[in-house]
Amino acid sequence: MDHGINPDKLREECGVLGIYTKNREDTAKLLYYGLYALQHRGQESAGIAVNDGLRSNYHKGIGLVPDVFNEKNLGDLIGEIGIGHVRYSSEGRGHLENAQPLVARYRRGSLSLAHNGSLINADIIRERLEDDGVIFQTSIDSEVIVNLIARYSNDGIIPAIERTMDLIKGAYALVIMTEDKLIGIRDPLGLRPLCLGKRGEDYILSSESCALDVMGATLIRDLEPGEIICITKDGISSTYYERPKRRASCIFEYVYFARPDSVIDTVSIYEARKNSGKILYEEHPVDGDMVIAVPDSSIPSAIGYSEASGIPYGEGLIKNRYIGRTFIQASQSMRELAVRLKLNPLGINIKGKRIVLIDDSIVRGTTIRKLVHRLKNDGAKEVHVRISSPPVILSCYFGINTPDRSQLIGAVKTTEEIREMIGADSLGYISEQGLIKATGLPKEHFCTACFSGDYPIDVGEKLNRKMKKYFKD
Ligand code: SF4
């Protein structure tokens, strides 16, 4: 996956992790390994907070997990409960103050929280809290959640969480830590993933099961939408804020965000991607000499396309795996160089061939255009582009960084116009039905709003707010 360096992709915002362990000394190190496995979900900041039974100690910083942590700062974090977070910012800027976990003291003790997702009504709640004299230390919506839970905590943490869930709207997978509890919460639509694992006597909550594997844990199950799981020294209990009337898990987890070795809502990401390649061939067959992938996230779909078509799969683009985040901040001209540095055509494999190039998505279209041109410059006879997700035509309001609609090429151009612009010999996108079929789950399981416009929550509030700001300026 190239989430960290490609400005032409939708971007996942965060990964969360939590552990309740009997082995106090290993808590932070286990979280470190788990966060490393979740690094693809956010590369801007990382943090770990551990509660020693009296208070929460934490360390967080800007950068990748191995840049932020070392033996010394991990060694200072001792305790039975710990939570961790990796972040790429959309809500709130990427300053250290916005790094998570958020650690707060309130009248009942200490409360730490890590959040993946985005609330659509955080601004309004924040204004009301500020009117009541609440001071915020960050610009992120997660702090609104911390404040609400603290405010309603008189009757205990779980009732406070339920009251908070009454108010907040949007996407949230949360891990929360107090002196004696590790709590996991998945929003009532299940927009963002959160799963539960076990490692001996230890319980682990994670955005993705790949972190459980790395931590030596076994996946027990995904949290259900609206479920609150509470882990204490006496074991685990589950309550529901709300039994879901419908689900709306983000289908882009299957397309691109999640790691292929993860399983989300019982579906293997790798299998779903491979199936999408097979369906893509059924929907958009083409004659070719070799199927290649834009590495890494499109490889399973390319293998699926190859298996279904009988066209051999081969390597056509070599990825430089050592590119850091430097190029995210780069100017337009440097971005061009970054694409070249990152993916280099393998001339010997593509020369004189009819190439079927599989990518997982087209957002702005700039990267795929450069890749098609480079493949042709390096001798490909034809380049047929196949995309394993439908055209992205609308913005996401649930924690995924999407460009403005005017920059979404699928929103402003027809498929034929896009084909022409990127210089491909043909272009085909998988259909929405095809993508859903590839997962093996029913349509009702998913949010597909950025393809279909079928937003699972009324986003009018957020849109109105944006419009107000627009007119003010
Ligand atoms: Fe995922 Fe798109 Fe829905 Fe956002 S709008 S949650 S990216 S499917």
Detailed description of the structure:
This protein is α+β, with helices and mostly antiparallel strands. About 30% of the residues lie in helices and about 25% in strands. It contains 18 helices and 23 strands. Strands 3-2-4-1-10-9-11 form a seven-stranded antiparallel sheet. The radius of gyration is 22 Å and the shape is elongated. Iron/sulfur cluster binds near residues 191, 447 and 449. Iron/sulfur cluster binds next to helix 17.
What brief labels describe this structure?
473 residues, alpha+beta, 7-stranded antiparallel sheet, 6-stranded antiparallel sheet, 18 helices, elongated, disordered N terminus, disordered C terminus, binds iron/sulfur cluster
How would you describe the shape? elongated
Number of helices: 18
> Major beta sheet, specifics?
7 strands, antiparallel
Distinct small molecules bound, one entry per kind:
iron/sulfur cluster
The whole-angstrom Rg is 22 Å
Mean of residue pLDDT?
A: 91
Structural class: alpha+beta
- Unreliable stretches covering 5 or more consecutive residues: 1-5, 466-473
Q: Trace the largest sheet across and list its strands.
A: 3-2-4-1-10-9-11
Question: Which bin fits the share of residues in helices?
Answer: 25-40%
| CA(first)-CA(last) distance | 37 Å
Total number of beta strands: 23
Share of residues in strands: 15-25%
